[in-house]
Write a structure and sequence with these properties.
By secondary structure, the chain is an all-beta fold. It has three domains: about 375 residues, 7 Propeller (Methylamine Dehydrogenase, Chain H); about 100 residues, Immunoglobulin-like (Sandwich), CATH 2.60.40.10; about 80 residues, Expansin, cellulose-binding-like domain (Immunoglobulin-like). It is about 0% helix and about 45% strand. The protein has one helix and 42 strands. It has a five-stranded mixed beta sheet, with no helix packed on it. Strands 5-6-7-8 form a four-stranded antiparallel beta sheet, with no helix packed on it. A hairpin with a 6-residue loop joins strand 13 and strand 14. The longest helix is centred in the C-terminal third of the chain and has 4 residues. The chain is globular. The relative contact order is 0.11.
Length: about 600
């Protein structure tokens, strides 16, 4: 068994996690090889001159691929024949099935139904996938699973060490999307709940997972956005913007488009745009500068639906009214399919048939061996320069409606990740030698600081303000620090931390404890911690910085102990509950 631990927790809306940043390389080339459609392959190692190759994919909608850090093809989802629509194989760089990589439970007709996420040192790769073969909720539903490939197995050729592992005991819609955590190291994975046939209520629920190396935490639950009320086939496609600031969601069954702000630090979604009444929306993609959103519509198996490509301006005061039709496809046997940002800064647009591998003879024309491109996606309206059928994929290749589901593997950490509100401060009542304290932590370039309340602060917009305190009266002030990353254009990327400044009575019997009534050592620690207290405690917990309890410490000989070896590097809290119901909190650092 590999080191995969799944923590299942319910979270109402917000949650926070923080880990110390370590040196990482953000010039990975893991998006450089695309395998998709029927035998389709594009190599982007020279973005100015993409080259084609022949893969062993054979899927109408689903595809996922990943390269190594040097741009060499590593793994992809493929199938030797399109006769089986309920499983796929994991293929290697030689287009052979990875050891134990057969029969991954997917669906060839699952749009964005798979995505590949690496661990820290790129030796293990999660293939997350939705499946409709092991679902027991209703006749139409999806289940979320993962398959793990260990590239150090089988003489370095890789081997599947865990396959079709259930990750979520809920019915989900088909599409998956992922973006990096604010630390530039971990990953958020997102999927939407699907309404069960026998469920009287609609659902607006997202399930989110945090992938840290080989540890999966979640699901974290948030109810936000439009209600999804249809049953039947669980169609729906989420798409993160390339910088991770936004998420779009199109629902073919619901005829709706939702746009959300996404906080990479907390994982929180905030609903921004809700547009209903669209004509069978199928796929979407943000422009690299995140101003424009492209949406394909008219996807249907019926010959009376006209397909098209529309552009929305997210900077507009009325996004719905900003829609510009870029192209309408009047051939009923062709439809705009999936969209995908590419390393050459263009958006590739698949145009295929809603019939898949079957249909009228007109589907055999050579146009289906091409993929279309939006050459200037950051430009308004027709200036975006849509070029239909301008990139040739090869004589034996069919694009279908398929583009690979490839996240931004190069997304860097946010600047505020390394800053916080600092340690809690205590001053003894009557100590005339102290008239205040400095709070916060050293300033980090690119971070905008805002403290609240401003009372007592020397400056509410700097990293480390001085707090004036009266030493003649008992008082306690909690200061809230909001940190915004000025290096990104989106206001989605903020972080909130708090610090307590307290003047307390340190007389008789308490002064000895005031300095350290709760002792945590060693701190920082790599493995174990011990908590000692000069006051009676009923229980002690390890929590994340939002206060979410992660581990209960065990007591022995009036000491509280915990093994932190399974936890990631970062800042955590020790929450000590006193026998009288009080609460003491101390920070602890888990080091490398």
């Amino acid at each position: 068994m590999t080191n995969v631990r799944v923590h299942k927790r319910k979270v109402i809306s917000a949650f926070t996690c923080l880990f110390l940043i370590t040196n990482s390389v953000y010039s990975q080339m893991e998006d450089r090889n695309w395998c998709f459609g029927y035998r389709g392959g594009i190599n982007f190692n020279d973005p100015n001159d993409p080259q084609i190759f022949e893969s062993k994919t054979s899927n109408f909608e689903i595809s996922a691929s990943i390269s190594d850090s040097l741009g060499n093809l590593l793994l992809y989802l493929g199938r030797h024949a399109i006769t089986s629509n309920i499983t796929n194989d994991i293929m290697d760089a030689n287009h052979e099935i990875v050891q134990n990589g057969e029969d991954i439970e997917t669906s060839g007709s699952s749009a964005r139904g798979a995505i590949i996420i690496p661990n820290y040192d790129r030796t293990k790769y999660f293939v997350f996938h939705t499946s409709f073969t092991s679902c027991s909720f209703t006749a139409w539903c999806g289940s979320l699973q993962y398959t793990l490939v260990d590239m150090e197995q089988n003489g370095g050729q890789g081997s599947v060490v865990e396959r079709n592992v259930p990750l979520l005991n809920e019915s989900v819609e088909e599409g998956l999307s992922a973006t990096k955590h604010a630390n530039g190291k971990d990953w958020w994975l997102l999927v939407h709940e699907h309404r069960k046939d026998n469920d009287p209520d609609c659902t607006d629920r997202f399930f989110k997972f945090l992938i840290q190396d080989t540890i999966i935490s979640g699901p974290f639950i948030q109810d936000v956005g439009s209600s999804h009320c249809t049953t039947g086939y669980p169609a729906g496609e989420p798409r993160f913007s390339h910088q991770g600031n936004y998420l779009s969601y199109v629902s073919f069954k619901q005829n709706l488009l939702d746009v959300y702000c996404f906080n990479r630090f907390t994982g929180e979604l905030t609903s921004l745009v809700n547009i209903s009444g669209l004509d069978f929306p199928y796929s979407s993609e943000f422009s690299p500068n995140e101003r424009f959103l492209y949406v394909t519509t008219g996807f249907s198996g019926s010959n009376n639906i006209v397909s098209g490509l529309d552009q929305y301006d997210l900077s507009s005061g009325n996004v719905a009214d900003s829609k510009i039709n870029i192209w309408t496809e009047n051939d009923f046997y062709r439809t705009f399919g999936q969209l995908q940002n590419a390393p050459d800064k263009k958006i590739y647009a698949a145009i295929g048939s809603p019939y898949g591998s079957t249909g009228p003879p007109s589907l055999q024309d050579t146009a289906l061996s091409y993929i279309s491109r939006i050459n200037a996606p950051d430009s308004l309206g027709l200036s975006c320069d849509l070029r239909l059928y301008d990139f040739y994929l090869g004589d034996s290749t069919v694009c279908y409606v398929n583009a690979p589901n490839i996240p931004n593997y190069n997304l860097a950490p946010l600047s505020f990740y390394e800053s916080d509100a600092g340690e809690d401060q205590e001053i003894c009542l009557g100590d005339t030698s102290v008239n205040g304290v400095v709070i916060g932590s050293p300033p980090v370039p690119g971070v905008i600081y805002s403290w609240s309340p401003s009372s007592g602060l020397s400056n509410s917009s700097i990293a480390q303000p001085f707090v004036s305190i009266s030493s003649t009266q008992i008082q306690a002030r909690t200061y809230i620090l909001t940190m915004t990353d000025s290096t990104v254009s989106s206001l989605c990327q903020t972080r909130v931390d708090t610090v307590l400044v307290e003047v307390k009575d340190c007389s008789v019997g308490i002064s000895e404890m005031r300095a350290d009534p709760i002792g945590v050592y060693p701190n920082p620690t790599r493995e174990f911690i011990i908590v000692k207290a000069a006051i009676p405690l009923s229980e002690v917990w390890l929590t994340d910085v939002s206060g979410r309890r992660l581990l209960k410490l065990y007591e022995s000989d009036n000491q509280w102990r915990a093994d932190l070896r399974a936890f990631r590097t970062g800042i955590y809290l020790i929450e000590a509950i006193t026998e009288d119901g009080g609460r003491k909190v101390r920070k602890v650092i888990k080091s490398e």
